[in-house]
Write a sequence for this structure.
C-alpha cells in the first residue's frame, strides 16, 4: 500500500488516498485514531460507478462513521475509474441498459454476466486491501462491511472471517447463485431496502433477506427511490455498527 495524498478535513478526519498495486483507494481515519488507540474499520462498498462519481456520498458515510470512532476505507472496483477497461463488464452493462430501455425483464443471463464476474474479481482485491489496512498501526479491528454491490457483501461475509458484521444495501441485481451463498452467512446483518427502488427487484431483495442464515438480521425498508434514503436509515445503520464493532 502506497499513500499518494493526505489531507485533514474540517472535522479532524484524516483522508488519505492510496494505491494497492494498480488499485486506487481512500482511507479515512478519525482524529482519535493512533497507534496507542487503534480503531475499528468499516469497508465501504459502492456500486460500479467509479470513486470520483461516488466520492461525495462515500465521504458523507465516512464522516458519519468517524464520528462514531471508526476508520473507513474503499477501493475502486475492477473496470471502473482509471482502472483498465473490462470489455465483458461493459458489454453486460450495455445489455442491461438495452433491456431496461426496451421495458423488457432483466433475465438471469444478463444478471449473471453483470454481477458474478465482478464478485469473483473484486472480493480477493477487498481481502488484499484489508490485509494492508489492518497493517496500519492506527487500525486495530474489528472489521465491518457496509454498502453494495450486495452480492460482493454476501461473498465477503462468507469467505472473510475478519468481517464480523455487515450493513448491506439491497439496491442491485442478485444472481440466483448468490442465494445459496446467503444461506452460509452467519454474521449479524443490517439490510437497507428502498421500497420504491426503480432499479431493484423488491421481491428478490426480500427473498435474499429470507435466505440469509444469520441468527441476527434486520431489514429496514423505507419508502422512496434508489437515491431517496432517509437520514434516519443511516442513523440506524450507524447504531448497528456501534453495537457490533465498539
Amino acid at each position: 500500500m502506497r499513500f499518494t495524498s493526505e489531507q485533514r478535513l474540517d472535522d479532524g478526519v484524516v483522508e488519505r488516498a492510496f494505491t494497492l498495486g494498480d488499485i486506487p483507494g481512500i482511507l479515512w481515519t478519525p482524529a482519535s485514531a493512533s497507534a496507542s488507540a487503534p480503531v475499528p474499520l468499516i469497508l465501504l462498498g459502492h456500486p460500479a460507478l467509479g470513486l470520483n462519481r461516488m466520492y461525495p456520498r462515500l465521504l458523507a458515510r465516512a464522516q458519519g462513521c468517524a464520528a462514531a470512532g471508526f476508520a473507513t476505507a474503499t477501493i475502486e472496483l475492477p473496470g471502473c475509474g482509471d482502472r483498465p477497461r473490462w470489455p465483458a463488464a461493459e458489454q453486460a452493462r450495455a445489455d442491461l441498459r438495452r433491456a431496461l430501455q426496451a421495458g423488457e425483464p432483466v433475465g438471469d443471463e444478463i444478471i449473471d454476466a453483470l454481477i458474478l464476474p465482478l464478485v469473483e474479481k473484486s472480493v480477493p482485491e477487498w481481502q488484499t486491501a484489508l490485509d494492508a489496512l489492518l497493517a496500519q498501526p492506527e487500525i486495530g479491528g474489528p472489521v465491518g462491511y457496509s454498502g453494495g454491490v450486495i452480492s460482493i457483501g454476501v461473498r465477503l461475509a462468507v469467505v472473510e472471517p475478519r468481517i464480523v458484521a455487515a450493513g448491506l444495501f439491497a439496491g442491485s441485481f442478485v444472481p440466483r447463485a448468490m442465494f445459496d451463498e446467503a444461506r452460509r452467512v452467519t454474521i449479524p446483518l443490517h439490510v437497507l431496502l428502498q421500497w420504491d427502488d426503480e432499479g431493484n427487484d423488491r421481491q428478490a431483495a426480500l427473498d435474499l433477506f429470507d435466505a440469509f442464515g444469520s441468527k441476527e438480521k434486520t431489514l429496514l425498508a423505507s419508502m422512496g427511490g434508489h437515491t431517496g434514503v432517509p437520514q434516519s436509515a443511516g442513523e440506524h445503520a450507524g447504531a448497528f455498527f456501534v453495537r457490533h464493532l465498539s
The two ends are 26 Å apart (CA to CA). The first helix runs from residue 51 to 67.
